[in-house]
Amino acid sequence: MLALKVLVVGGGVAGPALAHWLSRIGANVTLTERSPQMRASGQQVDLRGQGVAMMKKMGIEAAVRAVSIHEPGTQLIDVNGRTKAFFPAAMGSTGKQSITSEYEIMRGDLVRILYGLTENRPNVRHLFNTTIERFTQDDENDPNGKVHVSFRDGRQEDFDLVVGADGTGSKTRAMMLSPDDPDPRRLRGGYIGYFSIPSQPGDSDRFTFCHLPGGRVARVIGTRKDVPDLTRVYMQMRGKDAVVDAASKAGDLAQLKNALADLYQDGGWECERFTNALRHAPEADDLYFTPFVEVQLPPGSWSKGRVVLIGDAAHSSTADGYGCTWGLVGPYILAGEIATLLKQKSSPTAAVVPGAKNYEERFRPVATATHGGSQVAESLFFPTSSVGIWMLHTVARMAAYWQLDQMGGLSEKTSKWQLPEYPELEREQGEA
Ligand SMILES: Cc1cc2nc3c(=O)[nH]c(=O)nc-3n(C[C@H](O)[C@H](O)[C@H](O)COP(=O)(O)OP(=O)(O)OC[C@H]3O[C@@H](n4cnc5c(N)ncnc54)[C@H](O)[C@@H]3O)c2cc1C
Ligand SMILES: *[C@@H]1O[C@H](CO)[C@@H](O)[C@H](O)[C@H]1NC(C)=O
Ligand SMILES: *[C@@H]1O[C@H](CO)[C@@H](O)[C@H](O)[C@H]1NC(C)=O
């Protein structure tokens, strides 16, 4: 049988993970990334629960361990810098989770490890600095049907399957949906921004959060530390702010830096030092900023014929801590469902179209479990009054004592959910 020809659009986390699984079943995979090179930026990400099991299945546990960050835990402090509650990192394989997971890794390191899986595979082609401009596809019942793709550089090629792994703002998704379908991105009313600054002696190696009273919106400032010379500063905001919105829309780095610095400058703790660095230190040019967004596609619309979405493109929930975990699990399920059908069906289309549907059916309830958040949790975690912050610290101290954080943010059903087994993926094609 002719190899399944697949185009994966987006070389972040989900894209290279899918390339890995599909290359194992002998597919001919093209992985395109819009950036001129691997986009190995970003701060700390974590692999939790099923993400840890997934990483082991992919055979990258040792590689991840070798670059993982040893964060002793998470603490809440007050505006005078005093620790109010401490949650030690989750350890061991009991499935219990904490705010700091056992596998904390820089996003760039994870992306590099995932590319490494297919770098030397003859059946995987990595294309940088290009993307797709448009596509059309044949009727989904046509057993020999293809997706006809035009690339930005003018090339045209046909594929049996096109996968959008191009993140929350996915262009592949926009092309797959009808022009009159609503934008599935929902703003959750808040922002997150992070950047690096030169470190100082005394900067904590714990993931440190400080809630700031007052302000136009609810403000949290945090720090993390993964290298000696730099401290990473996190700003989390709840609510809508016109100045921040305008700066974000303008797409001007200096304007955005100033808007965030103005908002935090007088917040207390080390806000003055952090905002000075944000305005003036070149280290802070790595500022990454995004509103809280959720991608909520209607059921049954993760795929259309031979075009399917994975990762943030399908189910993003910015900063809920599961982006990378679900970004690794989804590709495995898609590849597994297709591989299972490929064995039974006579044509690629006959496997790809229902395989994509099966993938959504199996994975959607898990991947969207944290969508919508919880109003109670939100008002508890983003207090703006001194009394509200005092209450949060009190509750957190009790929670730390009773280790309530280890129950994690997932419902019992989702945290108990087990990765499906796919014998077709266990065995390398060509192995006996
Ligand atoms: C630069 C960056 C920094 C991040 N930092 C963090 C972080 O610090 N902490 C955290 O928890 N999460 C972070 N995330 C999000 C996290 O990586 C994802 O939630 C998770 O890994 C799911 O991955 P994904 O592959 O679906 O999407 P992403 O990781 O967003 O990858 C999407 C990829 O597609 C590429 N792309 C976009 N559009 C196109 C196009 N039209 N054609 C071709 N390629 C395209 C992008 O350049 C990117 O490489 C970051 C994402 C990015 C892109
Ligand atoms: C990327 O592609 C564009 C044209 O599509 C070209 O002008 C540019 O030089 C390329 N950049 C790199 C780094 O190859
Ligand atoms: C995969 O497809 C590309 C593009 O059509 C082609 O050039 C290449 O020869 C194919 N590779 C294999 C291993 O079949």
From TrEMBL:
Q: Does the keyword NAD apply?
A: no
Entry annotated with the keyword Hydrolase:
no
What is the residue range of the signal peptide feature? 1-19
Alphabetically list the UniProt keywords. FAD, Flavoprotein, Oxidoreductase, Signal
Q: Which Pfam families match?
A: FAD_binding_3
SUPFAM superfamilies assigned to the protein according to its UniProt record, in alphabetical order: FAD/NAD(P)-binding domain
Which molecular function GO terms apply here?
A: FAD binding; oxidoreductase activity
Q: Domain named FAD-binding: which ranges? A: 5-174
**PANTHER family, sorted:** MONOOXYGENASE, PUTATIVE (AFU_ORTHOLOGUE AFUA_8G07040)-RELATED, OXIDOREDUCTASE-RELATED
Report what the protein is called: FAD-binding domain-containing protein
Q: Which organism is it from?
A: Capronia coronata CBS 617.96
Q: Taxonomically, what lineage is the organism?
A: Eukaryota, Fungi, Dikarya, Ascomycota, Pezizomycotina
